[in-house]
Design brief:
- The chain has 427 residues and is an alpha+beta fold.
- It has 2 domains: 2-289, L-amino peptidase D-ALA esterase/amidase; 297-424, ArgJ beta chain, C-terminal domain (Ubiquitin-like (UB roll)).
- It is built from 11 helices and 17 strands.
- It has helices at residues 70-82, 101-119, 141-149, 157-166, 222-231, 269-289, 308-319, 322-329, 335-348, 382-389, 416-424, and strands at 2-4, 15-17, 29-34, 47-62, 85-95, 127-134, 175-183, 186-195, 208-213, 237-238, 248-253, 297-305, 359-362, 369-373, 376-377, 393-399, 405-412.
- The strands form 2 sheets. Strands 1, 2, 3, 4, 5, 6, 7, 8, 9 and 11 form a 10-stranded mixed β-sheet that branches. Strands 10-17-12-16-13-14-15 form a 7-stranded mixed β-sheet, with helices on both faces.
- α7 packs across α9.
- The chain is globular, with a radius of gyration of 22 Å.
- Keywords: Acyltransferase, Amino-acid biosynthesis, Arginine biosynthesis, Autocatalytic cleavage, Cytoplasm, Multifunctional enzyme, Transferase.
- The record marks 132-133 as: Involved in the stabilization of negative charge on the oxyanion by the formation of the oxyanion hole.
- It comes from Candidatus Haliotispira prima.
- The record marks 205-206 as: Cleavage.
């Protein structure tokens, strides 16, 4: 394990990042992934499940796209009806169950009931259902039924790995993260699994993220905490500017670690919050690095804003610009595209920004290239700029000089490969 420093509470102990942790590593969680036939390729796993040995506190953040998947509608309702309690979830890949009308809702609800019966869960609303894949395809109910019958969930790390593979679509790699910390003298584990590589844009994307923890959390605390962490991670990434229909982030906390329920007054609240934020960032970064056709990971950091929200809007405005992304693929230090995207974001959100005070820098440390100071263009070496942009990780700093807050956003370049992937393959 590599040690990381907790930053939230000054009395927080050190937490550790566990490189081999899986979604079923926390106490009381089982998982698996199988091939159920939603995909034609028999070598592709396409049905995954997570189960808690006891009912868990749960919260979700879902897509803001109003043309949303049936599973989004059904799982939102389940969380409302259960008062934020889930005991299991099931997810198919390859068939998104979006744009499928009343039949899609029926399939999602029937899936809930079949899984409830299989796992002997008390209420159907304690089951979350998820789908990802091609819009307009109704998941085959017979395959779903047979798949649920064949589920054999376990604590085995291989089954956790199989779950991470079963939820993938155009992803090249599984995206996992795991942290372990000490709370009230008890070992607490926090694990996450995500999928997503295209249709990625702030307000989430064609992405699913599942988080499990054996921590005990005070009722009503999970939803606002998850929302805060999502706002500072998944909501700040962009691959292609398209907000998906099926985006979901779900957390389940079953309390089996035996700690006193966490709340903001608990001395270890900061530790848990920091670890959850780190976990979400790990998965958000992994999504950008695995973006369809991407060659470069780009970070834009905005300083000197009136508040964090303003800084985030500006950073997201730049990272979401397709013109900027294309310039990054071409390794062209076209600072005008940065300023144009920034100006559009400022206009859209009615921000009072004085561009005559703007500083713009590419890169960090000794390799940093100042591009603008106080709104004036600075001369720079095109050779140095091309060398900086040839790197796989690229950083830009923008200082607005109108406040003291900052925020970051993350994205990638836009390549010919992205067009190729999305032009020849329906996904």
């Amino acid at each position: 394990m590599d040690k990381e420093k907790a930053t939230g509470n000054r009395n927080s102990p050190v937490w550790t990042k566990q490189s081999n942790g899986m979604i079923n590593t926390p106490q009381g969680f089982l998982a698996t992934g199988i091939h159920a036939g939603f995909r034609r390729d028999s070598g592709r796993l396409d049905l995954g499940s997570i189960y808690s040995e006891c009912p868990a506190q749960a919260a979700g953040v879902f897509t803001r796209n109003q043309f949303c998947g049936s599973h989004v509608t059904v799982t939102r309702k389940a969380l409302e009806q259960s008062g934020g309690v889930l005991q299991g979830l099931i997810c198919n890949s390859g068939q998104a169950n979006t744009g499928t009308g009343k039949r899609g809702i029926e399939v999602a609800q029937n899936t809930q009931m079949l899984y409830q019966e299989k796992m002997s869960i008390r209420n159907p609303e304690w089951v979350g259902v998820f789908s990802t894949g091609v819009i307009g395809i109704l998941p085959d109910m017979d395959r779903c039924r047979r798949g649920i019958e064949n589920l054999q969930l376990s604590k085995n790390p291989k089954d956790g790995s199989d779950f991470s593979r079963a939820i993938l679509t155009t992803d090249r790699v599984a995206k996992t993260s795991c942290y372990v910390m000490e709370i009230d003298g008890r070992s607490v584990t926090l694990s996450g699994n995500a999928k997503g590589s295209g249709m990625i844009h702030p307000n989430m994307a064609t992405m699913l993220a599942f988080i499990t923890t054996d921590a005990a959390i005070e009722e009503g605390r999970l939803r606002p905490l998850l929302g805060q962490c999502v706002d500072r991670s998944f909501h700040r990434i962009s691959v292609d500017g398209d907000t998906s229909t099926n985006d979901s982030v779900l957390i389940m906390a079953n309390g089996m670690a035996g700690n006193r329920p966490l709340n903001p007054e608990h001395p270890d609240w900061g530790t848990f919050c920091d670890a959850l934020q780190a976990l979400c960032l790990d998965m958000a970064y992994a999504i950008v690095r695995d973006a369809e056709g991407a060659h470069k990971f780009i970070e834009v950091e905005v300083f000197g804003a009136p508040n964090e929200e303003n800084a985030a809007w500006c950073a997201k405005g730049v990272i979401s610009s397709n013109l900027f992304k294309a310039a990054m693929y071409g390794e062209d230090m076209n600072w005008g595209r940065i300023n144009s995207a920034l100006g559009a974001a400022v206009t859209e959100h009615h921000l009072a920004i004085d561009f005559s005070r703007l500083d713009l820098t590419a890169g960090k440390g000794e390799d940093a290239i100042p591009l603008m100071r106080a709104g004036e263009l600075l001369e720079h070496s095109e050779r140095d700029a091309a060398a900086l942009l040839s790197q796989p990780n690229i950083y830009f700093a923008i200082d607005l000089h109108c406040g003291s807050e900052s925020a970051k956003a993350w994205g990638c370049d836009l390549s010919y490969d992205y067009i190729h992937i999305n032009a020849i393959k329906r996904s």
